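Changelog entry

Holo records now carry the ligand SMILES as an explicit input line rather than a separate metadata file. Below, a converted record for magnesium ion, shown in the new format.
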Amino acid sequence: MNFDFSIFWNALTSLNYVNGAVLAILLAVLAMALGIVLGFLIALARISGKRWLVTLSSVYVGVFRGLPTLLILLLAWNAAPQLIPALRSDAYSPFVAALISLTLVQAAYMAEIIRSALLSVDAGQPLAARALGLTPVQTMIRVVIPQAIRIAIPPTGSELINTIKYTSLASVISLRELLTTAQSGVSTTFRYAEFYAAAAIYYLAIVTIVTVVQAQLERKLLWTSKDVPSAPRPEPGTVTLDLKGTKA
Amino acid sequence: MIPSTIEPLLSVSDLAKSYGANEILKGVNFSIKAGEVKAILGASGSGKSTMLRLIALLERADRGEIVLAGRRLGVDDRRGKETAASERQLAYQRRDVGMVFQQFNLFPHMDALHNVALALTVVQNVRRREALEAAAEMLNRVGLGNRSHKYPRELSGGQQQRVAIARALVLNPSVLLFDEPTSALDVELVGEVLKVMESLAAEGMTMIVVTHEIGFAKRVADEVLMFDRGSIIEQADPETFFGSPAHERTRSFLSHVR
Ligand SMILES: Nc1ncnc2c1ncn2[C@@H]1O[C@H](COP(=O)(O)OP(=O)(O)OP(=O)(O)O)[C@@H](O)[C@H]1O
Ligand SMILES: [Mg+2]
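Structure line, unchanged by the conversion:
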């Protein structure tokens, strides 16, 4: 059996795949956004110094980093509705179950990233802010968080990429994301290579976009007065002649 | 402000602080009048920074009083009796005390102008435009009018410290604390920072300066205090202090820094 490019191309350009990709992106981005909010609160709890908050948040992180994400998805989709009648409604769709699962998992990972980012901001920074009369909340928002964000961006980018890949696990609860779309193509034709390759292209494209956006964000946060860190501009009033192009 | 010759602007009495079992400050007393400059000398670990942090309300004292312009700092006396001030109240009381750190501690994510303007907008609720104008003017005053859009990492240590001075000064504090402001600087950059501090002193700013710059202390200070293991062991005008130090430990300290 040869690789049939027309099957591959048809799959790649089909609406099903586009929909699957959109669903995967939507799920990953939402889970990350909610995970960052929840993770931030957990991180604050972990560095609060209050015993019960530290314990509670540490247990949370331990549990959700320890359990396989696949198991959490199955628990959310199959087990939870058996225990909680309210979840038996139609509103509790595979998408919602997957979103909750991935959010809970990402919150645990983001809590660790945010915690270490907050702790790695130089202690002199909040000290100087407080000395200027900023309240603890103002100090956090104006001084500590902006610096923590810069530290947290690279690992957060990796987590977003992980989350995008994790969305494929939601195929087990029949969410029609990319991998489910590929599987259903496979199940009628047995053309594994073509349908999986099409899915692979989408994942790679999405991850590439994330990487580019991340690099741009990092460039924005260089904290210099120049747009691009390159050769210093000549001072006004000085004339530089560079006839031979030696400085290029 | 009319500098009073009788009442001290700031007085500290029986100020004490321990970290664990170590008593770092053992009940320190001194006072400073408006417009005065006090230089503080002392060996490493003698508690100089700790005292400045207590006066700046960055840490709570175990014991003792800090009174600024007749008001006791670090306590809440609004209900007739004195209780420990909340973090918010401390933030409010800190407005009157400026602090300049050894490591500058400029905010790296803001340019010089916004470093200086931040507390004006956030703490004093000055409108953004006016705050930026005031910040620009203050940067001019420390000789950095042409550097206002540079970020801290683009400035030399001396320039950063001058921005830090402008940042404290723009809030119009009644007293300015300096914790070894030139110790982190290359020798050739020390002068520009000391020059700014001297001109502040000449303009009547009340300053407490922890420093190892003997020359500065001689030229600028009205009084020099010697710290030793958590206590002030000697306190005199510069001429007496450097010319005929009374305490043996002062003599030995001075022979080492000179
Ligand atoms: N937060 C803290 N926790 C525990 N110990 C501390 C703390 N801050 C300071 N110390 C200790 O208190 C002592 C005095 O410190 P301090 O910084 O006040 O000294 P200093 O006179 O400013 O010295 P230096 O010239 O080195 O700056 C030191 O032994 C230091 O280790
Ligand atoms: Mg010190």
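Spot-checked after migration. The two ends of chain B are 38 Å apart (CA to CA). Chain B touches chain A through 34 residues (CB under 8 Å).
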